[in-house]
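Hi there,

I know you've been waiting on this one. I reran it after we fixed the sequence typo, so this is the corrected version. Both the input and the resulting structure follow.
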Amino acid sequence: MKKNLRFIIITVIAALLLAGNSNDLSASITQHPQNVSLCSGSTGNVTFSIAVSLGIYSYQWEIYDRGWVELVNTTKGVSISGATTTTLTFGFNSFNPISSSFNGTQVRCKVSSKAGTIYSNTATATVRTPVSIGTQPISATRVVGESVTFSVSASGTSPSYQWKTNKTGIWASISGAVSNSYTIASVASGDAASYQCTVTNSCGSVNSSIVTLTVWAQLAVTKHPAAVASCQGTTAASFTVTATGNSLTYQWQAQPYRGTWANIPAASGGTVKTYLLPALTTAMNNYSFRCIVTGNGGASVTSNSALLTV
């Protein structure tokens, strides 16, 4: 019985010694450090951690700089702590925020015991640049049927875009308007509104300036002057024109029979939409009258001519 017990004890001790001499520690790391994604200009702690199975180990974090270099704790510049523990911490503050120079930083942890040394997987830090808008959109004025394009230029890592419109006091996203420019191929009167673009990435979002689209009706004569036939001495004869457009002005012209067209002065009432003729005389018989309507940034249209018979 004593011989059997002694054999069992010797067998257990031998197994423990063999396990202690094993150089295979791959099963000791149960969680490897993870990649991190950061935003340039931000502050706070950036940590890398490992988890190991039960045992007595020592730890040494390393950073890749044209080769693997052991890290040491420091409070100068970007602080480093936990260089010989299971959690490595880089500390960033307002004086030393995360910058693009930290992009691509690679770390790993060396885990050692009497049985040997193994390394964790490599973890990488990716630093993304927040979005910012360089060129803002510009307000525009268009006539119905014309096209308009609003554009922004933005910098930052992988920006995305969403154009919005405000027609009733509430901002609403425009379906499909997800590029840095937004075009309305044929403007309608209902497109008159405010517009804005939101630019977003993983670090946040910024809004462009608010711009306004002003829509003018197409410049057109919708009602031409009608011919007038009246008696000599009449003082109530007139010609009227009706037009659509924006900021309309009027210039009436008269043409004697077989003569040339001439502007009627403002003092004589020739620059309003209804021209009131002076007292009719037989000399005015067979005069023709027409109106030039100007608007929409300088464009003009001319009405049909109307004949006066006295």
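Quick highlight: The helical segments are 2-20.

Best,
R. S.
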